[in-house]
Amino acid sequence: MKVVFVGTPEFAGEILEHMVRNGINIVGVVTQPDKPRGRGRKMLPTPVKIVAEEYKIPCIQPESINKKEALDFLQVVVPDVILVVSYGKILGKKVLSLPKYGCYNVHPSLLPKYRGASPIQRALENGEKKTGVTIYRMVKELDAGPIALQEEVDIDPFETFDHLERKLIELSKKMVLEFFEKLKKGKIELREQDHSQATYAPIIKKEDLFVDFSKDAETVKNKIRAYDSKPGARVFLGNDEVKLFGVISLDSSDDEPGLIHYIDREGAWIGTAKGKVKVRYIQFPGKKKITFWEAKNGRLIEEKMRLEGRYGS
Q1: In the chain, what are the domains?
Q2: Could you read off the pLDDT of 147-156 as tens digits, one per residue?
């Protein structure tokens, strides 16, 4: 069975390498173009391209998978199935109709919940207790196709984006191999999604990153862990936009929203509208993240200072 893999970030790169190492016949790869990254804005390949080059798999990087360059490539390699993982662009009708067995997507949520670009962050932000991975056959509508496989995982109370993403990568690796084994044996049974239960996970915008201390402690905790460690939840300390990481505890006693109540070696207790959160790390502009204790000892911060979650003001 000939497979074309379509994806872009590290999440996708790890799954591609796992497939290659386990004998899945990848005849071609489609990924996004190289982009400038880092402080030096150096042009760097996508993680998927790096894996494709390591294993000498033909790889193209079109501006659009729906244009002639990509369509010609797909018609030459003649895939039996296209597997999409975090590609970041929409597949058009022509591409969807090319493979013998269709196009399938690996999506890190329990569809129909959290359709869209940011399902892991939004599940954490909303305080979900469970999430998972869905492999579904793609249709024109976003993340709306019939489900081939779906498995769930628990979300721990203080779990961060990094940790949950790792769990979902490992689950995806297992499920992808199971999917191709079932597909080869003709044992894929598709079930339609309940579209009335659909929710959406829109792409992250900068304003989404700001912590609102006028909310309760649980909501503040969820905001910080949803963006830990990338790109980091934001607050203002005076005129400095700083990042917070590592919520390690909650307290039910009330305090003034945003007020740094107390700092010890474990972190800083910060007030919310209802209760307090204990946060371990802070990152100042242009610096590495440090503990609140280190920031206090370096006279960068002190108790009774106030953190504010304003944006665009």
Answers
A1: 1-101 (3.40.50.170), 104-204 (3.40.50.170), 206-308 (3.10.25.10)
A2: 999 999 999 9
- State if pTM tops 0.85: yes
Asked if residues 136 and 85 have their Cβ atoms less than 8 Å apart, the reply is no
